[in-house]
Amino acid sequence: MGVGFTAEPPSATASAVPERVVLAARPQAALRLYCVPPAGAGPDCYLRWAPLLPSWIEPCSVALPGRGTRAAEPSLTDPGYLSARLAAVLDDWTDPRPFAVFGHSAGALLAYEATRHLRRTHGRLPSLLAVSSLSAPHLDAYSAGLPPRLTAGLDGIRELVGPIPDQLLADARLMAAACTPLLADCLLLLHYRHHPEPPLDVPLALYGGEGDPVTLVPDLKAWNDLVTTPAPAQLFPGGHTYLQTETKALVGHLTGTLDAARNRPVATA
After folding, report:
1. pTM of the model
2. What are the DSSP calls for 55-90, one per residue?
3. pLDDT by residue (tens digit) across 115-171?
4. What does the DSSP 8-state code read for residue 186?
5. Rounded Cα distance, 171 and 31, in Å
6. Fewest CB atoms within 10 Å of the CB: 14, 70, 225, 257?
7. Under the phi-then-psi rule, with left for phi > 0, alpha for psi from -120 to 50, and beta for the rest, what region is 140?
8. What is the edge-to-edge ordering of all strands in the sheet holding 233-236?
9. Regarding beta strands 57-63 and 19-22, do their DSSP bridges make them parallel or antiparallel, or are they unpaired?
10. In this structure, what is the dihedral angle of CA atoms 103, 73, 85, 21, given to the nearest 10 degrees?
11. Which residues does 201 contact at the CB level (< 8 Å), separation at least 6?
């Protein structure tokens, strides 16, 4: 079964698709790592990862409509449509190298659903699916956890994105520009309905913040229900946005996990 959404919303255009962003070109690298941005963010949130990753990993991200250089485009809020288009970016027929995918917050859901779409369409599957700071999608936690934060004003937004710069708070237009893609991704999560499928036969990595008020540790560990090989949750100091302060430690652990997974035969659906 699919994720329960139409393949393409009537308002979508041919350009309303994710675009690959290569953060550091390494054509000789053995593996591509796609980092899917969290709610409201663009690929630049992963720029600091490039110098921390070894030469055998080519760091990539994706630019989504409504963010960064694509801010003039409408955001997409249909998780089925967006994850299907993301799957086409991940499994690039012009590049035979294996790939892995990491997603933080809302990006974790897109990474997971893109992987399920690849399995349904008999595409290549990632060498590793790494998810961070998001409750497992089958728990139906998004509809319960997001509305209270969206109605809590700035305090609720800070729990989702971390500290808000004073210059944003002082300028209503800048604040609106920053919050619009965040709200769009929250709407994407609220639109999501999980449809059971067989567990994914893909190595899993789980990451989160020790003090995350948004994603509780048991809800993070529940991702293990959705794969054939469970993984322990690796926790770092911090809350929902721990990766902003624990970048070096997170990238180091992820690199070791990728090194262990890259010799595993690449799965196909």
Report:
1. 0.85
2. TTEEEEEEEPTTSGGGTTSPPP--HHHHHHHHHHHH
3. 999 999 999 999 999 999 999 999 988 877 666 666 556 665 666 565 555 565 555
4. H
5. 42
6. 14
7. left
8. 19-22, 57-63, 31-36, 99-104, 129-132, 204-209, 233-236
9. antiparallel
10. -60
11. 125, 227, 228, 229, 267
Position 2 pLDDT exceeds 70: no
Q: CB neighbours of 139 closer than 8 A, spacing ≥ 6?
A: 219, 222
Residue type, 100: A
- What pLDDT is stored for residue 8 in this prediction? 40
Q: Summarize the chain as % helix, strand, coil (round to 5).
A: 40, 15, 45
pLDDT tens digits, residue range 215-266? Answer: 899 999 999 999 999 999 999 999 888 998 999 999 999 999 999 987 666 5
Burial class (CB in 10 A: 0-12, 13-18, 19+), 209: buried
Q: How far apart are CA 31 and CA 177, in angstroms?
A: 35
Count CA atoms closer than 13 A to 144's CA, side-chain side: 9
Cβ within 8 Å of residue 176, ≥6 positions away: none
The two tokens of residue 200 are 């994914």
